[in-house]
Amino acid sequence: MNKRGGNAPLAWMMLMAFAFLSLRGLERPAALVDRAGEPLPLEQVAPGSPGADFAAPPESRRIEFANGRQMHEGHVADALALGNRKGTQWSSFAWLFEREVVTTVAPGFDLRHHFANAFLVGYVPYRDVAPWVPLAALARSKAYAFDHDQFPGRMEIWQTSREAFYYPTGDCEDHAIALADWLIGLGHDARVVIGRMKGEGHAWVVLNDGGRTYLLEATSKHPGQALPLASRLPEYQPEAMFNRDTYWVNAGSVLTTDYSGPHWQPRSAFTRS
Fold first, then answer.
1. Domain residue ranges of the chain, discontinuous segments joined by +
2. CB within 8 A of 37, min separation 6: which ones?
């Protein structure tokens, strides 16, 4: 994810949050390319391709708050249109409801903003594999690249889990979304975490298994088969996390390695009709 510039729209409704950069960078391509290495302008992602993950109407993707109120992605588009200012429309935002963060919204390949959970589309390349296999597959098949290098003029574009395995480049949240969704499809309790690492915005994955919590650095290009415990990685500072159907906010200190305590508050439930 990338830092963004410009003014924040509609401060009463949303604020900019989680300006994500990666821990590491590999070679940065000038444009997004397909598996054959051919340049692929964003506007040419055609229906029927991986870019069609959001072909359904925005009303089919909605979140519900603790008080029962619902909001669908059409409301997001309307609010962004009302508050649109230069430099804001291609960034990710933490969405506020009654002064509390309830979700993150981010632009996809279709040039529209979607709820964070919506990028986990249930894509599982292979089943019946060990948890370290998806991490190794990402290390081999996907190179790191900043969004502003892949998409000139746009500070941030999120890839769905299907798109992340189709296109050979992406940044930290693209890696994390692909990894978490595959692990969820294998039956694991995996979540995309957004926060900071060494002072920089970042995204990673946590895996809860048998009373232990593992932290998986999705952008690592040299992963091992031994999954590291989150308790041994205090340099990661989590602010929020999500899976396919829930968005949690860390209401306590970010100086924590606990990803399951009471400070993790579920703020919204996601539904894809």
1. 14-272
2. none
pLDDT, the chain, mean: 83
Q: What is the pTM of this model?
A: 0.84
What's the pLDDT band for 40 if we cut at 50, 70, 90? low
- Say if CB 165 and CB 180 are below 8 A apart: no
Task: Tell me whether residue 93 is exposed, middle or buried, using C-beta atoms within 10 angstroms of its C-beta: 0 to 12, 13 to 18, 19 or more.
Answer: buried
Q: Give the lowest-confidence range in 69-73, 82-86, 191-195, 238-242.
A: 82-86
Closest CA to 175 of 207, 134, 208: 134
Burial state string for 140-169 with b = 16 or more CB within 10 A and e = fewer than 16:
eebbbbbbbbbbeebbbbbbbbbbbbbbbb
Task: Find the distance separating the first CA and the last CA of the chain, reported in whole Å.
Answer: 28
Q: What is the mean pLDDT of residues 89-93?
A: 75
Cα-based torsion angle of the residue sequence 53, 181, 130, 33 in order, rounded to the nearest 10 degrees: 50
pLDDT reported for residue 32? 57
Inter-CA distances, 18 with 85, 108, 223, 237, 265, Å: 19, 17, 25, 11, 17
Work out the pLDDT band at 29, boundaries 50, 70, 90: very low
